[in-house]
Task: inverse folding
């Protein structure tokens, strides 16, 4: 199976309700789908989501990186030499992790098709379904509590609460939500870099004292403030997770060797795809640290690959893969299936995607 061609198609879908964090507000998904072709007529799918405030990957850069750097570097290579392909993808251009992730996904899809196996089996085959959390966008406390209740009524038992805009109000947000939902529902917070280190410690300590029962807190401080992240981790009890501070395998080694965080969030758009994500999981396992898998605003294509990795590897203990569930319409045929808070993996060969309704 020789790589012979590529297509890059934009996909746009509206969200059910606006997605709002300390960094951005999004009302529709705008993403690129990669279709990678081999000489036997097979196609592998992949996805690149442009997320300027997190990865810096703009739509134009994604297109340019894929069509003018990544694809030319792997054109004509055989899918069975996947290690060499991955080496080319990662070496032909620095950064551009979303573009790399899209092509990496398509290559893994084709590799699994060549092996005639579902992708999650080749990635480890640990389980066939996972449970995802669902995100509560940052708003007024009472509006957030109403959204939280709605999600609990729909069957979700873990909520990811977006905070990081005004720490005083953030405490009120979490308290109002905690009071509105059953005790057994887990709450995880994501500050999306919205606090500084001392403000984070003060805020988190107050939340601890109030007994708000928070499972973990994601990225309390700016991505570049590694000392600040470690300060927060050292001075609080609630587990602290690195998200925007951790893109690469080198970031993982750096952060974990100084214990700057208690847990890490892996996203394919940050690390450049499944190849690097698997290495990050192994590094975390070596440090005895758990991983969560998350995503950017992505369609069922990107989420199907993230879920394949999550179903493959036991090192991933927490799942934040609600993005495709927040869309008004599913334009992806095949791949994962959402059932309430469960994500069921496709048993079809490859990642299981049959087509996209662009
Ligand atoms: Mg996050």
Result:
């Amino acid at each position: 199976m020789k790589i012979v061609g590529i297509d890059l198609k934009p996909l746009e879908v509206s969200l059910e309700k606006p997605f709002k964090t300390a960094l951005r507000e999004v009302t529709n998904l705008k993403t690129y789908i990669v279709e990678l072709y081999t000489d036997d007529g097979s196609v592998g799918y992949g996805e690149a989501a442009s997320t300027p405030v997190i990865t810096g990957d703009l739509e134009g850069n994604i297109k340019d990186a894929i069509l003018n750097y990544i694809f030319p570097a792997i054109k004509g290579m055989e899918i069975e030499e996947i290690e060499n392909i991955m080496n080319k993808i990662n070496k032909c251009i620095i950064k551009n992790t979303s573009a790399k992730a899209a092509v990496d996904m398509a290559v893994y899809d084709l590799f699994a098709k060549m092996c005639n196996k579902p992708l999650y089996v080749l990635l480890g085959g640990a389980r066939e379904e996972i449970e995802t959390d669902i995100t509560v966008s940052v708003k007024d406390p009472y509006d957030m509590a109403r959204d939280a209740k709605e999600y609990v009524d729909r069957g979700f038992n873990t909520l990811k609460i977006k905070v990081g805009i005004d720490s005083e109000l953030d405490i009120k947000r979490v308290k109002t939500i905690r009071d509105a939902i059953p005790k057994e529902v887990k709450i995880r917070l994501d500050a999306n870099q919205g606090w500084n280190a001392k403000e984070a410690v003060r805020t988190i300590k107050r939340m601890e004292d109030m007994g708000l029962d928070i499972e973990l807190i994601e990225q309390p401080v700016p991505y570049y403030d590694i000392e600040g992240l470690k300060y927060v981790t050292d001075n609080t009890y609630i587990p602290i997770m690195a998200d925007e501070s951790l893109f690469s395998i080198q970031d993982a080694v750096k952060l974990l060797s100084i214990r700057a965080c208690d847990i890490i969030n892996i996203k394919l758009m940050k690390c450049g795809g499944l190849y690097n994500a698997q290495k990050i999981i192994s590094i975390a396992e070596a440090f005895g640290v758990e991983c969560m898998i998350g995503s950017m605003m992505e369609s069922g294509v990107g989420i199907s690959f993230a879920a394949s990795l999550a179903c493959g590897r036991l090192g991933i203990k927490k799942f934040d893969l609600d993005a495709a569930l927040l869309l008004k319409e599913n334009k992806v045929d095949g791949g994962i299936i959402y059932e309430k808070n469960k994500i069921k993996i496709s048993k079809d060969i490859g990642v299981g995607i049959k087509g996209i309704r662009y």
The chain has a mean pLDDT of 97. The pocket of magnesium ion is lined by residues 190, 192, 218-219, 243, 265 (CB under 6 Å). The domain at 121-356 is CATH 3.20.20.120 (TIM Barrel).
